[in-house]
Amino acid sequence: MKKVITILVVLVTVSLNGQTIFGKWHSTNDETGEVDSVVKIYEKEGKAYAKIIEIKDPERQNAVCTECKGANKNKPILGLEILTGLEKDDDEWSGGKILDPRNGKVYKCYIELVEPNKLKLRGYIGFSLLGKTKYWTRAE
Protein backbone atom coordinates (compact mmCIF):
# COMPACT_ATOMS: atom_id res chain seq x y z
CA MET A 1 0.00 0.00 0.00
CA LYS A 2 2.85 2.41 0.80
CA LYS A 3 4.28 1.82 -2.68
CA VAL A 4 0.96 2.66 -4.34
CA ILE A 5 0.62 5.89 -2.35
CA THR A 6 4.21 6.86 -3.13
CA ILE A 7 3.67 6.24 -6.85
CA LEU A 8 0.47 8.30 -6.80
CA VAL A 9 2.19 11.19 -5.02
CA VAL A 10 5.05 11.13 -7.55
CA LEU A 11 2.64 11.03 -10.52
CA VAL A 12 0.59 13.95 -9.18
CA THR A 13 3.75 15.95 -8.46
CA VAL A 14 5.14 15.31 -11.95
CA SER A 15 1.87 16.14 -13.68
CA LEU A 16 1.45 19.38 -11.71
CA ASN A 17 5.10 20.39 -12.07
CA GLY A 18 4.69 21.30 -15.74
CA GLN A 19 1.49 23.29 -15.23
CA THR A 20 3.02 26.59 -14.19
CA ILE A 21 4.77 29.49 -15.88
CA PHE A 22 7.34 29.56 -13.09
CA GLY A 23 10.71 27.99 -13.68
CA LYS A 24 13.47 28.09 -16.27
CA TRP A 25 12.77 28.74 -19.96
CA HIS A 26 14.83 28.73 -23.15
CA SER A 27 14.70 31.90 -25.21
CA THR A 28 15.69 31.57 -28.86
CA ASN A 29 17.37 33.98 -31.24
CA ASP A 30 14.93 35.06 -33.98
CA GLU A 31 17.62 35.03 -36.66
CA THR A 32 19.28 31.67 -35.90
CA GLY A 33 16.44 29.80 -34.18
CA GLU A 34 18.93 28.59 -31.59
CA VAL A 35 18.62 28.91 -27.81
CA ASP A 36 20.60 31.99 -26.80
CA SER A 37 19.65 32.33 -23.14
CA VAL A 38 17.87 30.78 -20.17
CA VAL A 39 15.32 32.93 -18.39
CA LYS A 40 13.95 32.23 -14.92
CA ILE A 41 10.35 33.26 -14.26
CA TYR A 42 9.58 33.68 -10.57
CA GLU A 43 6.82 35.02 -8.37
CA LYS A 44 7.22 38.05 -6.13
CA GLU A 45 4.31 39.54 -4.15
CA GLY A 46 1.77 37.68 -6.30
CA LYS A 47 3.19 38.93 -9.61
CA ALA A 48 5.40 37.29 -12.23
CA TYR A 49 8.92 38.51 -12.97
CA ALA A 50 11.78 37.08 -15.00
CA LYS A 51 15.51 37.54 -15.31
CA ILE A 52 18.20 36.17 -17.58
CA ILE A 53 20.18 33.55 -15.68
CA GLU A 54 22.32 32.10 -18.47
CA ILE A 55 23.74 33.33 -21.77
CA LYS A 56 24.75 30.54 -24.14
CA ASP A 57 27.22 32.49 -26.31
CA PRO A 58 30.56 32.64 -24.43
CA GLU A 59 31.42 35.90 -26.22
CA ARG A 60 28.29 37.58 -24.79
CA GLN A 61 28.77 36.57 -21.14
CA ASN A 62 29.79 40.12 -20.18
CA ALA A 63 27.44 41.96 -22.57
CA VAL A 64 25.64 45.01 -21.23
CA CYS A 65 22.37 46.58 -22.27
CA THR A 66 23.76 49.59 -24.12
CA GLU A 67 20.40 50.36 -25.73
CA CYS A 68 18.46 50.32 -22.45
CA LYS A 69 17.18 53.50 -20.88
CA GLY A 70 17.14 54.62 -17.25
CA ALA A 71 18.30 52.28 -14.49
CA ASN A 72 18.99 49.43 -16.94
CA LYS A 73 21.38 51.49 -19.08
CA ASN A 74 24.72 49.62 -19.35
CA LYS A 75 23.60 46.96 -16.85
CA PRO A 76 24.90 43.44 -17.48
CA ILE A 77 22.42 41.40 -19.51
CA LEU A 78 23.20 38.37 -17.37
CA GLY A 79 20.97 38.84 -14.33
CA LEU A 80 18.86 41.55 -16.00
CA GLU A 81 15.19 41.55 -15.05
CA ILE A 82 13.35 41.49 -18.38
CA LEU A 83 9.79 40.70 -17.31
CA THR A 84 8.06 42.76 -14.62
CA GLY A 85 4.75 42.94 -12.81
CA LEU A 86 2.50 40.47 -14.61
CA GLU A 87 -0.66 39.48 -12.76
CA LYS A 88 -2.65 36.29 -13.23
CA ASP A 89 -5.87 36.74 -15.20
CA ASP A 90 -7.52 33.35 -15.82
CA ASP A 91 -5.13 31.37 -18.07
CA GLU A 92 -2.77 34.23 -18.83
CA TRP A 93 -0.52 36.65 -16.98
CA SER A 94 -0.83 40.26 -18.12
CA GLY A 95 -0.53 43.90 -17.11
CA GLY A 96 3.24 43.92 -16.98
CA LYS A 97 6.13 44.80 -19.23
CA ILE A 98 8.90 43.00 -21.07
CA LEU A 99 12.32 44.41 -21.92
CA ASP A 100 14.13 43.33 -25.08
CA PRO A 101 17.81 43.67 -24.16
CA ARG A 102 18.80 43.44 -27.85
CA ASN A 103 17.25 46.83 -28.60
CA GLY A 104 16.52 48.26 -25.13
CA LYS A 105 12.81 48.67 -25.86
CA VAL A 106 10.11 47.99 -23.28
CA TYR A 107 6.75 46.60 -24.35
CA LYS A 108 3.46 45.77 -22.67
CA CYS A 109 3.06 42.02 -22.60
CA TYR A 110 1.12 38.98 -21.62
CA ILE A 111 2.21 35.38 -21.28
CA GLU A 112 0.27 32.17 -21.41
CA LEU A 113 1.20 28.55 -20.86
CA VAL A 114 -0.03 26.88 -24.08
CA GLU A 115 1.43 23.46 -23.27
CA PRO A 116 3.12 22.19 -20.10
CA ASN A 117 6.54 22.96 -21.63
CA LYS A 118 5.67 25.78 -24.04
CA LEU A 119 5.10 29.41 -23.09
CA LYS A 120 3.58 32.03 -25.39
CA LEU A 121 4.83 35.61 -24.93
CA ARG A 122 3.18 38.54 -26.67
CA GLY A 123 4.90 41.92 -26.56
CA TYR A 124 3.11 44.94 -27.98
CA ILE A 125 2.78 48.69 -28.13
CA GLY A 126 -0.67 50.16 -27.54
CA PHE A 127 -2.88 47.11 -27.99
CA SER A 128 -1.99 43.47 -28.57
CA LEU A 129 -2.75 43.46 -32.31
CA LEU A 130 0.38 45.56 -32.85
CA GLY A 131 3.08 43.32 -31.52
CA LYS A 132 5.15 40.20 -31.75
CA THR A 133 4.67 36.70 -30.39
CA LYS A 134 7.48 34.42 -29.26
CA TYR A 135 7.47 30.98 -27.76
CA TRP A 136 9.80 29.75 -25.04
CA THR A 137 10.36 26.11 -24.18
CA ARG A 138 10.89 24.84 -20.67
CA ALA A 139 14.53 24.30 -19.73
CA GLU A 140 15.49 21.17 -17.80
Structure characteristics:
DUF2147 domain-containing protein, 49% strand, DUF2147, Lipocalin, 140 residues, single chain, mainly beta, 8-stranded antiparallel β-barrel, 8 strands
Mean pLDDT, to the nearest integer, reads 88
Number of helices: 1
Secondary-structure element series: HEEEEEEEE
Question: Which segments are poorly predicted (pLDDT under 50) over 5 or more consecutive residues?
Answer: 4-17
State the end-to-end distance. 32 Å
Tell me what portion of residues adopts beta-strand conformation: over 45%
Radius of gyration in whole Å, from Cα? 17 Å
Backbone shape = globular
Number of domain modules = 1
Structural class: mainly beta
CATH class label: Mainly Beta
- CATH fold field value: Lipocalin
Tell me the number of strands: 8
Helix content: 10-25%
| Arrangement of strands in the largest sheet | 1-2-3-4-5-6-7-8
Oligomer: single chain
The biggest beta sheet reads: 8 strands, antiparallel, barrel
CATH structural architecture: Beta Barrel
Commentary on this structure:
InterPro entries: DUF2147 (IPR019223). Residues 23-138 form the DUF2147 domain. With 140 residues, the protein is mainly beta. It has one domain (21-138): Lipocalin, CATH 2.40.128. Helices cover 11% and strands 49% of the residues. It contains one helix and eight strands; from the N terminus they run H-E-E-E-E-E-E-E-E. The chain has one helix at 2-17, and strands spanning 23-28, 35-44, 47-55, 81-89, 92-100, 105-115, 118-124, 131-138. Strands 1-2-3-4-5-6-7-8 form an eight-stranded antiparallel barrel. A hairpin with a 6-residue loop joins strand 7 (118-124) and strand 8 (131-138). The longest helix has 16 residues, at 2-17. Mean pLDDT is 88; it is low at 4-17.
